[in-house]
Design goal:
Layout: H1 2-19, H2 22-60, H3 65-79, H4 91-115, H5 119-123, H6 125-160, H7 164-171, H8 181-187
Helix pairs in contact: 2-3, 2-6, 3-4
Length: 202
């Protein structure tokens, strides 16, 4: 008799939690973790391309020390931030991560603009391959970030909405930080270099 009572009680609790958004909070939280992991993977892919890119540019434009150093320092700053899963629960840490990635994006854009002034660099096969990989990675970053943004939006709405907000408070679910509007404008324009015909070619 006691076992039957416990089973009924557990069923009632389960239904109550489901009706109060507990299951939605759990599923959207897991979705955020998965999408965040993909964001980190793509950012890491970009960071891994930078040393070869910098060295290739240096071979043709060693005098551009300030730009090259800017990219190297921005990459180092990104690497100094531990992008752990817990980071998405800390608004201040998330903002630092976002700012560092933004600085790296800006530094890369400046580097690619400088590359336009060196026809031999632009026509170098290694540089063209690295730039193509970088552009592809930037596009994958945009896709991964958009998935993360949508997952966070769904989760945050659940955290704020009644009655799921009561469940969120009870179980410690809090709103997650989001990428800023300004940053979204920047990320929508990944660095691109037009590899047309080299200077002087017809």
């Amino acid at each position: 008799m006691m076992k039957r009572f416990l089973a009924i009680a557990m069923a009632v609790v389960t239904l109550s939690l489901s009706g109060c958004g507990y299951n939605t909070l759990q599923s959207t939280d897991e979705s955020i973790k998965a999408s965040w992991a993909e964001v980190i993977n793509q950012y890491q892919r970009r960071a891994d391309l930078i040393p070869n890119l910098v060295n290739t540019v240096k071979g043709f434009a060693a005098q551009e020390q300030q730009v090259l150093l800017g990219v190297t320092n921005a990459r180092a700053k990104v690497g100094s931030i531990q992008a752990t899963p817990e980071l998405i629960n800390d608004p201040q840490a998330f903002a630092r991560f976002q700012a560092a990635q933004g600085e790296l994006s800006s530094a890369l854009s400046r580097l690619l603009v400088v590359a336009e002034n060196y026809p031999q660099l632009k026509s170098d096969a290694n540089f063209r391959d690295l730039q193509a990989q970088l552009e592809g990675t930037e596009n994958r970053i945009t896709v991964a970030r958009n998935r993360y943004i949508k997952a966070v939006q769904e989760y945050n709405v659940t955290v704020r909405s009644f009655p799921s907000n009561l469940t969120a408070m009870l179980f410690g679910f809090k709103e997650k930080p989001q990428f800023t509007v300004e940053d979204e404008k920047a990320i929508s324009k990944p660095p691109v270099v037009d590899f047309g015909a080299p200077a002087g070619a017809k």
